Amino acid sequence: MIDVTDVSKSYGPVEALRGITFHVAAGEIVGLLGPNGAGKTTAMKILTGYLQPDEGTVTVNGLDVLTHTRQVQAQIGYLPETAPLYPELSVQGYLKMMAELRQIPEDEQRDCLSQAVYATGLEDHLTRPIGQLSKGFRQRVGLAQAILHRPRLLILDEPTIGLDPTQVVEIRRLIRRLAQHTTVLFSTHILSEVEALCDRVIILINGRIKADARLSELSATPDAVLVLDKAPAGVFKALRGLNGVRGVEQVQTPDGYPTYRLLGEMGNGADLCPAIYELVKERGWPLRELRREVRTLETVFNELATAA
Ligand code: ATP
To answer: Residue 43 CA: which ligand 1 atom is closest?
Structure first.
């Protein structure tokens, strides 16, 4: 659905994007995660044809954004970081105006409007001026205008920024619902947003892609944690003797059960748990817990940010 190849963009001396390349397949929901100033908004403006890259190409559904801007924009629903809503217009009046601007044929407008209003839960607010709505409801109006023309791709720039926790939950629920029928690329600087909404993340730092992976891949480590009821004799030696184990550490835990972290070989991706389980069974050790160690997205992000 989206192919971005070697895209760079500078504003004078500021290199906002430095040769980014990524792909989003139809039906995916992908988070573009990065700190302030990472280049997220710049990337989204380029994807939607509102800004030209200095170098590189972007295609949406096979069409080059630079040469087929109108056709591409017709397939995209875009929620900019600050949606240009008109406070004095009613919700209905605004959406009608957007339908006209999007050149939705007169006989389809009523259906498009009611579907967008229904999808975003705005039925009871149609006649209210946008300026009188809460921030969360204004964001719904922004989303309603983005889906009005039934786009195949939704591009959402920081969709929950500035909302209170209840509104954040509602907007995320709404995005998940919309994503059932549409490809979604959204940007955020909030780690939990990515975890709540998608399973693939592209991490952008200083205009460069530092990671592009499924959350499960990012959080996986080669290590395992074993918790026993009682510490058996010779446990360290036996664990260290397992294939692929490069070290064993005892971990202090509040409940006091003997807990061991087994360090696996970096990079070979092998799961130590089956071999550990076999050993535990063979020795008759009293097993409480055995799991693969995972890193939080926060740890991953901090490591990447520090290395940037
Ligand atoms: P935020 O999360 O704060 O919105 P972002 O990841 O969306 O940040 P961008 O807004 O794309 O990042 O900005 C990337 C870099 O480009 C920043 O250093 C920013 O100051 C700079 N920049 C963005 N727009 C302009 C502009 N119109 N003129 C000059 N510099 C700009």
So the answer is: 11
